[in-house]
Amino acid sequence: MKKIAIIGSTGSIGVQTLSVIRRYPEKFKVVSLAAGKNAALFAEQVKEFKPKVATVAETFDGICELGKISEIHVGETAFTNAIIPDADLVVVSLVGFTGIIAVLDAIEKGKDIALANKESLVVGGDIVMRKAREKGVKITPIDSEHSAIWQALGFDFDAPFKRIILTASGGAFRDKTQEELTKVTAADALKHPNWTMGAKITVDCATLVNKAFEVIEAKWLYNTTFDKIDVIIHRESIIHSLVEYNDGSVIAQMGYPTMELPIQLAIGYPERFLPVTESLNFSKIGKLTFSELDEKKFPAFREVVNAGKKGGAYPAVANGANDAAVKLFLENKIGFNDIYISIAEALSAYCGGAANCFEDLKSANDFAARIVKDKFGV
Q1: Which residues contact 61 (CB under 8 A, 6 or more apart)?
Q2: Over the stretch 48-89, which tens digit does the pLDDT of each residue have?
Q3: Is residue 196 over pLDDT 80?
Q4: Strands 28-35 and 2-7
């Protein structure tokens, strides 16, 4: 039986991870849970799974009762207390920069990681992968695209290939014109055509910043260069990504769009369990379409990829600006196109600097957040 720690249990990925575990009580045991501020759901999870340790960002009425079930820790970074010796695998599904803290702590404790936190590799890819190699820690991807690549490579991160092709649905605004994008709202952005995800990542899909993040993640996960990573729009989200080999052969991983499939594979590997959705019915799918990504309409994509190419702390700047701008957009305080403008202006204002440790990355991330907040007077 595999013992699982879930960091970010009340978020979209955390909830779906628990859904997978619930189906296989003979395969998995939840030994710790860490949550943010969704007290009601956190309490339900603790009562159901009875983890040895449970942590939450803020105290709430009724938390003392949970202390009779689990060892409880409270605080913004209390989630590190959930990375316990009993855990065989740590699922990191926190959203945002703080996910890096969980990843680095898990690596330091020698725990294998199922990774859903993009920022860990986008911002700290060099540090994270270097430390993981030093500690002999395995990082398996939960992202559907990176799970697809992992599978197409035969589960061998070091397998040679000619090209990685990431697919993108295009997000909520794939059919909007540039003029229409000046008028869209946060509510519009959250209507993803294919996937059900958290608010922040859904907005990142609408700007295609999420896809830029995945390009940077691919560079680190598969130890490759940016010129060997392509992105193509695939509206149906049936092909989750592809790998082209040197002889021209292309292998694609396919399936109906559900995050439970890559979650189940990431936590259950090397086993494959029963399907989480119906089998693909190719006669009913109809045609699968592909088109180029429109970088003119979605300029934030190229801006963030270029930050990745610059390296150092530039990806942390892009991330910090994006985080701050998306938060303001979700609060209806800025427009959709202001997200791209925020990222571009923060990167332009940044003068470069070292990125040798977590503190360097946090400094760059915070610098960008301040730029955005000052720009909009918040």
Answers
A1: none
A2: 999 999 999 999 999 999 999 999 999 999 999 999 999 999
A3: no
A4: parallel
End-to-end CA separation in angstroms for the chain: 49
Q: And the tokens for 76?
A: 């913004």
| Integer Cα distance of 131 and 147 in angstroms | 22
* Residue corresponding to tokens 């008028």: 183
Joined together, the tokens standing for residue 362 give 């946090």
What would the DSSP string read from start to end of 61-116? TTHHHHTTTSEEEESTTGGGGGS-TT-SEEEE---STTHHHHHHHHHHTT-EEEE-
Q: Could you tell me if 20 and 41 are in contact, meaning their C-beta atoms sit under 8 angstroms apart?
A: no
Let me know: does 232 contact 167? Beta carbons within 8 Å.
Answer: yes
Residues 291, 276: contact at Cβ < 8 Å?
no
Cβ atoms of 6 and 91 within 8 Å: the answer is yes
Q: In this structure, what token pair is assigned to residue 115?
A: 């990774």
Q: Which of 95, 114, 105 is nearest to 358 (CA)?
A: 105
- The residue among 103, 135, 22 whose CA lies nearest residue 361 is 103
Q: What digits encode the pLDDT tens for the residues 287-344? A: 999 999 999 999 999 999 999 999 999 999 999 999 999 999 999 999 999 999 999 9
In angstroms, rounded to a whole number, what is the distance separating the alpha carbons of residues 17 and 20?
A: 5
Q: Is the CB of residue 163 less than 8 Å from the CB of residue 244?
A: yes
SS3 content of the chain, % helix, strand, coil (to 5): 45, 15, 40
Q: How far apart are CA 187 and CA 237, in angstroms?
A: 22
The Cα 48–Cα 70 span in angstroms is 11
Six token digits for residue 157: 């991160």
What are the start-end ranges of the E strands in 124-270? 139-141, 163-168, 229-233, 239-244, 250-254
C-alpha to C-alpha distance for 28 and 285, rounded to whole angstroms: 34
Residues 6+ apart with CB under 8 A from 349: 371
Cis peptide before 270 (omega within 30 of 0): yes
